[in-house]
Write a sequence for this structure.
């Protein structure tokens, strides 16, 4: 009797094994043959910003381990949505990646009526590179030397003080919105297509201030062109240890921290995603890469697809509430 019943069980087990192999086969096979061509890494912002810098770090550090060059493509516009939409439409074969941020993959969906993709459903997370604060900067010769003086100037000029950002709905923009709300002033928001153009505008005197990513602002601060008044994190940054947080300068509870990650189009086989994460995670462990990223103010994470995915979903929900409360809309 045992033999009679064990036979069907054995056949059923073999059938399940073959079925699972058939399901896994295409992804595993694709990963074995991948990459077959250069990998396009879309940076949905202008050159020079934090997302661009991090993309180039990956390009320089993982090409050899993957066996194919990483080609950076800058596609700025709509706060990172233009390039992200392009990536979402790409073939999900592991040959297209996009540098995603708090704006492009968490905030924008609540800001714009249509961005051409769903930040969660249109992508598969690869790696959370890390987090970084923004830094409140003014032109070095502006005459503003403290947050207290900036607030006084804002109240004096009412809605004539201008602040830039890398786009509507970016962390720079929301940092400004939060500042206005907590201080009780109104300023004019001037969006640009990335950090670099907004920094150039500040240096040229076209705008009065920025809450820019610390990564892209530090060189101009160290070069004496900009003055850092505060960071937007709750604690000081290692890269600007003498610059106090806004939360310690009269704006108790103020905190805006940006994040940077990498995504692939939805449907990209998991074995390929895992290979990408492994290569990128190993790159983040390299001493020279760590030194460079920490010097830029980045707190390195390296979280994988599942953990990063949970984090992203929470961020989408969090910023949807902030946007509704601030009534930020783009028609």
């Amino acid at each position: 009797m045992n033999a009679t019943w064990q036979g069907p069980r054995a056949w059923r087990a073999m059938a399940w094994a073959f079925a699972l192999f058939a399901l896994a086969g295409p992804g595993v096979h694709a990963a074995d043959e991948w990459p077959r061509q250069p990998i396009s890494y879309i940076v949905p912002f202008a050159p020079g910003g934090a997302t661009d810098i991090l993309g180039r770090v990956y390009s320089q550090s993982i090409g050899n381990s993957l066996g194919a060059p990483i080609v950076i493509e800058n596609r700025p516009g709509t706060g990172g949505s233009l390039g992200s939409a392009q990536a979402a439409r790409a073939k999900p074969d592991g040959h297209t990646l996009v540098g995603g941020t708090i704006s492009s993959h968490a905030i924008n969906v609540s800001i714009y009526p249509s961005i051409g993709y769903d930040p969660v459903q249109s992508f598969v997370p690869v790696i959370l590179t890390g987090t970084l604060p923004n830094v409140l900067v003014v032109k070095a010769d502006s005459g503003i030397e403290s947050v207290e003086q900036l607030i006084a100037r804002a109240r004096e000029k009412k809605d004539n003080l201008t602040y830039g950002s890398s786009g509507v709905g970016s962390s720079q923009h929301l940092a400004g919105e939060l500042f206005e709300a907590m201080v009780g002033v109104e300023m004019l928001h001037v969006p640009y297509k990335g950090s670099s153009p907004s920094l150039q505008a500040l240096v040229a005197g076209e705008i009065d201030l920025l809450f820019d990513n610390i990564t892209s602002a530090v060189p101009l601060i160290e070069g004496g062109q900009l003055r850092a008044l505060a960071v937007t994190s709750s604690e000081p940054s290692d890269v600007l240890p003498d610059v106090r947080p806004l939360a310690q300068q009269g704006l108790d509870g103020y905190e805006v921290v940006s994040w940077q990650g990498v995504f692939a189009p939805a449907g990209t086989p998991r074995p390929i995603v895992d290979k990408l994460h492994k290569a990128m995670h190993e790159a983040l462990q390299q001493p020279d890469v760590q030194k460079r990223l920490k010097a830029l103010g980045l707190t390195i994470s390296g979280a994988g697809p599942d953990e990063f995915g949970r984090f992203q979903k929470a961020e989408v929900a969090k910023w949807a509430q902030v946007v509704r409360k601030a009534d930020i809309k783009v028609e």
